[in-house]
Structure formats: structure tokens, C-alpha cells
Amino acid sequence: MTAGANALTAVPETGEDILDVSFLADEHARSGISNPVLGMILFIASEVMFFAGLFAAYFNIRSAAPVWPPTGNIEFDLHPHLAIAGFLTIMLVTSSVTCQLGLWAIRRGDRTGLVRAFTITIVLGVLFLAGQLYDYSTLGFGINDGPFGSTFYTLTGFHGAHVFAGLLMLGVILYRGTAGQFSARHHDAVEAASLYWHFVDVVWICLFSLLYILG
Amino acid sequence: MATTVLTPTTTRARSGLYDWLTTTDHKKIGILYLTSSFIFFLIGGILALLVRTELAQPGLQFMGEASYNQFFTMHASVMLFLFVIPMLAGFGNYVVPLMIGAPDMAFPRINALSFWLLPLAGTIMMLGFFLGGSAAEGWTSYSPLANAKYSPGVGTDLWIVGLILIGTSSILGGINFLVTIFKMRAPGMTMFRLPILVWTILVTSVLVVLGTPVLTSALIMLFIDRNYGGSFFDPANGGNALLWQNVFWFYSHPAVYIMILPGMGIVSEIIPVFSRKPLFGYKAFVFATCAIGALGFSVWAHHMFTTGSVYLPFFSFMTFLIAVPTGVKFFNWIATMWKGKIEFSAAMLFAIGFLTMFLIGGINGAFSASVPVDFAINSTYWIVAHIHYVLFGGSVFAIFGGLFYWFPKMFGVKLNETLGKIQFVIMFVGFNLTFFPMHELGLMGMPRRIADYSPAAGWTDLNLVATIGSFIVAISVLPFLWNVFVSLRSGERVGDDPWEANTLEWATTSPPPPYNFDRLPEIHSERPVFDERHGRSLPASGH
């Protein structure tokens, strides 16, 4: 389908001045963001509200508790895990940087740069998930250990699930990138996936600050 | 300018059924939405009849409390989540791209996914009936009633999973509507020329995108509590029962506007057409819609006045405040009809039914906004009366109005007007007979969600009236089903614009081609088809 093939044929017999001709122009020549990117931004808005619900629950329960972390289980003190969590944070933040580098590369039309950067991003993401699972295995409490366990595993678990979803997205992008489907003009999917990856990163920074640093 | 000719590339070799199952055409998906939702309307209606039948007389005649609890829970869940919300989304799907002059939704395949999640979710939700009992703790699913101890069994878990899927469908649909409305408008279709229905769908979609995920988070926490020993909502274990109510109502109050705003939009399309006047105060209406959407997020705790743990003055004030933009809309509708050349078509009758009944629903809701009054009537049949005047008197009347209004566009034939008017009269009478007595029952102190009551309570007569009314409502659906059947077979064939309407969907054929428009009229106002019919190629004011 050529550009403008879906153009609706408004017939400007009179008053051509009111016709928004940009609608008929090439999609990428149009001002404003593309449909997939806008869709992703709105999806991220809904994801923000999803995590807002979980965070609200955390703050609600935490503010009502007499002491936090609750007494009774020495393992609730997460400060010994600060090092590994900090390492995971550095990996995820780095992966955001490489993701952005990949995006900048394809904006320049550099397909090799995109593929290289996204490969590193995916490796870092997988390492993050593996590290998180390792951290889980060393924790001395479970999801059924009171509100602390419930909130901790729900928040970090759903973040992990989002990392996994992000990795799937990045994987698709990488596959399509190696197939040469992106160019300087056509890379909406890369823009959208990288937005999502940054969002996942930001959620983790909030979680890390809240759960590990603040404790 | 070159006229682009669109040639459908798919061959007609595929069967009709396969085509419907795999379609990404917003019009077909819209009709799928409407059909699926109507089936759920019938299921929800049967559940309501079961509830009303049991309540006709004191004592337990037909079912035990356990079954009764399942029936009223699933009645509400089906009607809210599988009928009203998707039904209105169905109208949006069919009409919005046509109204803004677009060839389809922004994401057609996601659109198909949004629809197909619904029958799946509905099936999962209702599977509970066959697996030891469905959810039975009310659609609000309050904790601790909904926890594993008091609601054992897989029914509630299936309800949770089903609702999460419905929420996902809603969110994807909302995103799709927003991108479509922001990015797919035809040349000249500025934001302040959008038909009111499109505006209401836009605000609704914002509510869906921002509100529904919060419900998803609540449902996930409930699921964890029930199945993995979580303690979010269990006070005995350090959780907070009121947390559920806060998170739940943070979505479920905006959900009320999700269920009424598109109804207001439908009515705002019907009333100007059959009053032969433009909608009075277009911009005021748009701003009122936005105001309702914004205020909708600040009133959720009015469902929790009696918990004693919410800041009453704030939530009471904000709730009263919502009456202001709603009042603006009523003024607009009445001023539109004022001195209009009103044609009492079936669609218009339902629109007027909406106005009158939703007004009662607004007024009896304002009673509950007053904290001292709410303390007396909370969880009584007054609330049941209120919700049904809003959602039946409001949404359902608007939905039938919309069906009569757009049926000719969808199928190229009109629904029979006489049958429609008969349906309206029966439904209007039955509806009021069912729900008006509930005000009195509520004031007499009858609590909702009970299967039995004392013969000495003095509630028997009114309950019997309500039950008779509910069967009259059920009867009123029969002329509609018959109407659809005969109209599709041999209804009056119509042209592009049988109502002499205003908006773009009437500029194309009935039914429209898969790509919607061969040509679009010039768009100088919010009434392009009116302008073209009357040869107004340039705006009278001239800018």
C-alpha cells in the first residue's frame, strides 16, 4: 500500500484552505507522534496505574503497621541484599542506556548498531531476571509471610513479569532488526519497545529505593 | 487531487463464518460486540428474574441462599462487565471511526483481540456454575467475605480471572479508541467538531485506561490472598480490609461513568436529529463531559461513608459537585428539544426515557451523597433503586435508543417503529414498576442481597409489585427480538441517511463498504452531513 492509499477522498471543490493536507502526506512526514508510539504511551499510562494500585496497597499496609519491617522475622531486613539488588539496578539502568543507543542508531539508519545494542540490552535483561531469581532463592521469607512477604513478592514479582514481557518485545525487535525491517524512517516498533523498557527500568528504580534502600 | 480507488484484495472465497471469526473490520467487530453483549444481557436478565422470583414472597420457595447469592452476584457481574460496558464499546467500535471519517480503528487486530477476550472471559466467569458454584459474595467482592475462608471454591477465582481478562479487553479497547480519535480524524474534523458521542467515548476511554488497571491490581491481590497465602486484605494477618474497598472503588466508581457517558453520547446524537435542531451548547457539553470524567476520580469513597474511615466532607462535596456538569447536560438536552420539531420515533422515545429515568437516578443518588442520609439508606434497596435508575433507566434506555438509531446504518434496513414503540411502553412501565417500589422498600429498611424476609416486615406487597414489573421488563424484550428478526428478513430498506441526521456516518452507504467512505463531505462544523444537505459548503460565520 502506498502512502496515502488510505486517504479519504475529501473533495476540495471550494475552500481548499481548510483541508488538512498533512493527513494525505506520508505518515512519517506528519507532525506529532505515530499511532504505535501513542498507543504505547497510553499503555504505559495504564501500567503506571496498575503499579499505582500495588504501591498504594504497600503504603497503606506499611503506614498502618506499628513497625516496618514487621518484627518476628530477622530476614525481613533487606539491607544485606543491598549489594546484589544494587548490582541488578546497575544492570537494568545500563540496559536502558544500551536500549536508547540502539534507538539512536536506527534513527540514523544504522541497523548493525541497533542489533548490537539490543543484543546487549536483552543479555542484561536476562541477567537481571536471573539475578532476581537468585536473590529470591536467598530470601528467608515467602509470599505467605504476612503483609511484608505479600507486598514484597507481589511488587517485585509483577515487575519481573514486566521485565519478561519487555524482553519478549525486545526479542521481536531484535528478530525484525536482523531481518532488516527497520530503517531511519520506519522504526515505530523500536521507539515503542524502548519506551516500554525505560518504563520497566523506572519502576525498578522506585522498587529498589523503596524496598532495599529505605527498607 | 487524485481520488484514490481502494480495491479490496481479499477474495470472496472464504465462508461467511470464517470471515466473522477473523474479521478486523471495526464495523463487524462492533456488531460482534453488540451481539455478544446482548446475549449476556439475556443471561443477566434471566439471573435477575430468578432473584426477583425468589423475592416475590417471604420464605424460600425456589432456591437456597447459596444459589440466591450466586445469582445476584452473577447478575450484577454479567450486566456490568459483559453487557453494559462492552455494549457501549460496541457502539463506539461501530460508530466512532465512521463519525470521524476514518477507514477503521487505529489498531484493527488489537480491536479483534479486545472483542474475543470477552466471550472467553464470560465463559470463564460462568464456568463456576458448573464447578461447584460461581462467585457469591456480591459483585463488590468485599473482604473478608471474599477470602478463601468465607468464599471457598473455585467460583470466585474464576470470577477474578474472568474480570481481569475483561479489564484487559477494556484497556486495549480504550487505548485503541484514544489513538483512533487523536490520530485518525478526517481532514477538517477538529476536536471541537467531533460528534458528542466521540467526545464521550474519548473521556470514557481515559477513565478506562487510568481506572481499570487499578481494579486489575486489586483483583490480583485478592487472588494472591485467596490462593498463595497473601495478607493484603486480611486484618487478622496485618492486612487491611478497607484497602480492598479503596482500590476497588477507585475503579468501580469511574466505571459508573464508563457505563453512562457513552449513553449520554448516544442520546446527544439522537435528540438533535429528532428535534431538528443542533445540540444546544456543544462546547458546554464537551466541557461538562470532561468535568464528569475528572471528578469521577475524586468521589470513590462515597461508597465507603459508613466505614467511618474516609474524609466525609470532601467526598460528599465532590459527589454533589458532579451534579453540576450533569445538570449542564440536562439543560443542553432540554434546550435542544425546546421549540424543536420533535419526532417521536422509537429511538427518540428511548432517548426521552433516558432523560426522565436517568434524572430520577441522579436525584436519588444525590440523597446518598448526603452523609447523614447515606448512613440510613446505605446497603438498602434504595441503593438498588438508584443503581438501576442509572444503569437501566440510563444506560439500557440509551442502548436501545442507539440500536434503533443505528440499525439502519448497520444493516440497511430500519427496525419496525411500531414494534419499537410497543417495546418502549412495556419496558418503561415494567422498569418503573420494578424499581420505583424499591425506594420505599429501602426507606422501610429492607437490606439488599437477602433471599428471604419476614412476612411481618411489611415488604411483601412492594416486593410482589417489583417482581411483576421485572417480568414485564422481560416481556418487553420479546418484541425487540422479534423486531430484529423480521426487520433483517424483510425490513424497510433505507438509503444512506434515513433520519436526515448530522454526523459523518450518514454520509456513506447503509451498510458502509469495508473501507467506510468513497468520499467525504467537507467538514466545517460538528454537523457536516447537515451542512452538505443544505448546501452550506462554508461556515456561515466564516473563519
Topology:
The complex is a heterodimer of chains A (215) and B (543).
Chain A: H1 35-64, H2 82-107, H3 111-138, H4 146-178, H5 188-214
Helix pairs in contact in A: 1-4, 1-5, 2-3, 2-5, 3-4, 4-5
Chain B: H1 16-22, H2 26-55, H3 65-99, H4 108-127, H5 154-183, H6 196-227, H7 241-275, H8 282-295, H9 312-337, H10 346-369, H11 371-377, H12 381-411, H13 417-443, H14 460-490, H15 528-533
Helix pairs in contact in B: 2-3, 2-4, 2-14, 3-4, 3-5, 3-7, 3-12, 4-5, 5-6, 6-7, 6-8, 7-10, 7-12, 8-9, 9-10, 10-12, 10-13, 12-13, 13-14
Largest interface: A-B, 50 and 60 residues
CATH superfamily of chain B: Cytochrome c oxidase-like, subunit I domain
Strand content of chain B is: under 5%
Counting structural domains of chain B, the number is: 1
Low-confidence stretches of chain A: 1-29
Structural class of chain A: mainly alpha
Distance between the termini of chain A: 56 Å
Characterise this structure.
With 215 residues, chain A is mostly helical. Chain A has a single domain, classed as Cytochrome c oxidase, subunit III, four-helix bundle (Four Helix Bundle (Hemerythrin (Met), subunit A), Up-down Bundle). Chain A contains 5 helices and no strands. In chain A, helix 2 runs antiparallel to helix 5. The longest helix of chain A is centred in the C-terminal third of the chain and has 33 residues. Chain B has a single domain, classed as Cytochrome C Oxidase, Chain A, CATH 1.20.210.10. The two termini of chain B are 24 Å apart. The chains are: A mainly alpha (215), B mainly alpha (543). At the A-B interface, helix 1 and helix 4 of A face helix 5, helix 6 and helix 7 of B.
Quick structural gist:
The complex is a heterodimer of chains A (215) and B (543). By secondary structure, chain A is an all-alpha fold. Chain A is built from five helices and no strands.
